[in-house]
Q: What sequence folds into this?
């Protein structure tokens, strides 16, 4: 959640064991195996070299495999370096640190960037680092790692006889957040700060205590802010050391940690969701993002500044009303970041000394730009850029011309050459006579406006998320099979400001449903749609809204409800983010269950007539499969055509494994074609 016309019959799905023949010129499902993912570009401190991640599908292991590649700053001499991900250049530019597996556990490794290319495993043990950062002198690395809680429950259990095989002891659960999607059960531990020599050795634990280093959105482990001050004596981190932190929803502060003594000093004065500190090159300023504590379900973040001692707190991004991400320093007076805005993502600059507006757009265009890193010395940065018919590739830009994104990689050009893709057309319409909503239609290749096509409406998750214009293999595959694909950003989406995003505060679903139906109406009005063959689907928050939709209208011929929340009360005890559900309502369900029931799609199952395919991963801990089972059982009892698919080995979503991405596509289209009237 918060946190995103395959005409085969169901019986034909068993043929997936063999490679499907590609239909000439179209993006058929088997093309998915050939696409590579490019991410995490990092430019060397001197601006001469770039390291980036490149992942491909290993069909034998049914998994994505990530490799690190290097190239010159002009894009030449691209070569594979080592298996791993998340590269960080040392400040002196001689090495990179990265994450790679050792004995089945992700660990920190260092590779020398000379001709020899020697590698050193820096961390070892049964636990894995959760974040890391080079020291300013390039001699050591700070990292965070879980440390076991020494407490336990001793009951005086007798020892088993030699050779006996007793039943394992029960898992003792004492914390509210004791599991996390894609991780499983969490051990009783605390994420602490360590420092280790860049040459390896025994790490030294810096912080101690019953608290976690690292901000925790919705209460579960996530990204961790970790930044050295230039003197090498202090490290800035985010987190929450307050007693009872597990019951505080989206509270995080910035702390300064003395690495010699481990003493932590809180720098942010008021409670809020403050995170991701980044220090200016001269060490005079700390930039960080977040917002003050609020009862609203959603609020855009801002960029703030302060001195390293916490003084002179200053709001820098007043009036932006967008969520800044990947904030980094371009020089001592300029910050770079990227931000969602109306379905695109571009880079922006924030000036500390501007006499006029401090925030200005840097790049522009109908694309999604993800900022990688910036070389202060050379004035050059790197990012990835994705467009409607182009998967992400590495680009570079200069601070003087940040709008000039120069492509450096062409990883997928050969795969996509000769393929005909669906054209992406933007739509804008009003709902309720006042609210303007943005969306898009992906048209089948060779689209003929005089013909009528079956329509698929896909609904995004979140609910606080934003559909964007980046290449979407799922939608291009739908279009290749002859479907119109409609996707919109209803109220509650990000990228349109706090008021728009918070329109569903304590009322989810509500007006977002109205916006979705108005989007379907808008496309129908263009004369392209066969209204007898309209379908609706979505995962996570999209599963909430697709199950809500079929309980409030019978206009769709079939639905594919994926990884939904159907019952907010039972969800509160089943999910890995129990505080998330509580934040959706004014009072807990034991005090006032009526709103919880009113917003639960399961309460409208008596209205459903739409044949419904339900799909959820059997390991899902975010919207666990009992949520799907409740809907499935209710539909079966009512005699509504339905099928439940439990996807093996999948956590939240149904497509992390390449073969399951294909299954998801084929099952959905097979279901739609089964229940849509014949052409």
A:
């Amino acid at each position: 959640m918060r946190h995103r016309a395959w005409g085969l019959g169901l019986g034909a799905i068993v043929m997936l064991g063999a490679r499907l023949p590609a239909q000439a010129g179209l993006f058929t499902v088997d093309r998915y195996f050939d696409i590579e993912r490019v991410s995490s570009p990092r430019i060397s401190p001197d601006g001469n070299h770039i390291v980036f991640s490149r992942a491909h599908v290993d069909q034998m292991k049914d998994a994505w495999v990530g490799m690190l590649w290097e190239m010159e700053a002009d894009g030449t001499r691209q070569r594979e370096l080592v298996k791993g991900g998340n590269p960080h250049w040392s400040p002196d530019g001689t090495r990179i640190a990265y994450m790679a597996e050792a004995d089945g556990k992700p660990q920190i490794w260092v590779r020398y960037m000379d001709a020899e290319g020697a590698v050193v495993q820096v961390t070892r043990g049964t636990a894995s680092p959760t974040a890391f950062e080079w020291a300013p002198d390039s001699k050591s690395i700070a990292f965070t790692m879980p440390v076991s809680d020494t407490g336990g429950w001793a009951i005086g259990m007798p020892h088993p006889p030699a050779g006996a095989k007793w039943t394992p002891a029960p898992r003792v659960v004492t914390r509210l957040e004791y599991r996390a999607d894609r991780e499983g059960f969490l051990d009783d531990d605390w994420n602490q700060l360590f420092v280790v020599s860049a040459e390896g050795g025994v790490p030294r634990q810096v912080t101690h205590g019953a608290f976690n280093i690292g901000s925790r959105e919705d209460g579960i482990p996530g990204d961790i802010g970790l930044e050295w001050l230039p003197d090498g004596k202090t490290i800035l981190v985010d987190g929450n050391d307050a007693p009872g932190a597990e019951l505080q929803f989206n509270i995080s502060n910035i702390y300064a940690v003395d690495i010699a003594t481990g003493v932590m000093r809180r720098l942010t004065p008021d409670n809020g969701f403050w995170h991701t500190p980044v220090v200016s090159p001269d060490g005079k300023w700390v930039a960080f993002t977040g917002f003050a504590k609020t009862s609203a379900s959603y609020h855009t973040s801002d960029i703030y500044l302060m001195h390293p001692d916490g003084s002179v707190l200053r709001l820098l991004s007043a009036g932006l009303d967008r969520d800044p991400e990947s904030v980094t320093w371009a020089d001592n007076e300029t910050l770079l970041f990227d931000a969602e805005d109306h379905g695109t993502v571009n880079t922006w600059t924030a000036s500390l000394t501007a006499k006029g507006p401090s925030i200005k757009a840097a790049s522009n265009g109908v694309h999604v730009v993800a900022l990688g890193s910036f070389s202060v010395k050379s004035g050059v940065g790197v990012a990835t850029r994705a467009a409607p018919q182009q998967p992400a590739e590495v680009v570079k830009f200069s601070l003087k011309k940040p709008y000039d994104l120069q492509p450096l990689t062409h990883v997928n050009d050969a795969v996509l050459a000769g393929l005909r893709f669906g054209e992406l057309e933007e739509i804008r319409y009003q709902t309720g006579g006042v609210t303007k909503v943005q969306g898009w239609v992906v048209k089948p290749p060779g689209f003929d406006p005089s013909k009528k096509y079956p329509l698929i409406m896909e609904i995004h998750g979140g609910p606080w998320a934003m559909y964007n214009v980046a290449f979407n293999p799922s939608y291009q595959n739908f279009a290749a099979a002859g479907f119109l694909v409609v996707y919109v950003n209803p109220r509650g989406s990000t990228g349109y400001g706090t008021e728009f995003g918070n329109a569903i505060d304590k009322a989810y679903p509500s007006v977002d449903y109205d916006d979705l139906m108005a989007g379907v109406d808008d496309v129908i009005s263009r004369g392209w749609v066969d209204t007898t063959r309209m379908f609706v689907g979505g995962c996570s928050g999209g599963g909430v809204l697709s199950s809500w939709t079929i309980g409030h209208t019978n206009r769709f011929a079939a639905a594919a409800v994926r990884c939904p929340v159907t019952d907010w009360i039972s969800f509160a005890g089943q999910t890995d983010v129990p505080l998330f559900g509580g934040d959706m309502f004014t009072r807990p369900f034991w005090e006032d269950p009526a709103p919880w029931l009113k917003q639960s799609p399961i309460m409208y199952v008596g209205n459903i007539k739409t044949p419904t395919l339900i799909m959820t991963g059997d390991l899902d801990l975010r919207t666990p499969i009992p949520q799907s089972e409740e809907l499935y059982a209710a539909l079966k009892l009512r005699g509504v055509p339905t099928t439940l698919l439990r996807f093996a080995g999948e956590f939240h979503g149904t497509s992390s494994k390449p073969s399951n991405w294909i299954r998801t596509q084929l099952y959905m289209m097979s279901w739609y074609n089964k229940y849509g009237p014949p052409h």
Notes: Residues 658-675 form the longest helix (18 residues). The chain has three domains: 10-29+420-675, 132-149+179-315, 328-411. Residues 60 and 659 are 10 Å apart (CA to CA). The radius of gyration is 26 Å.
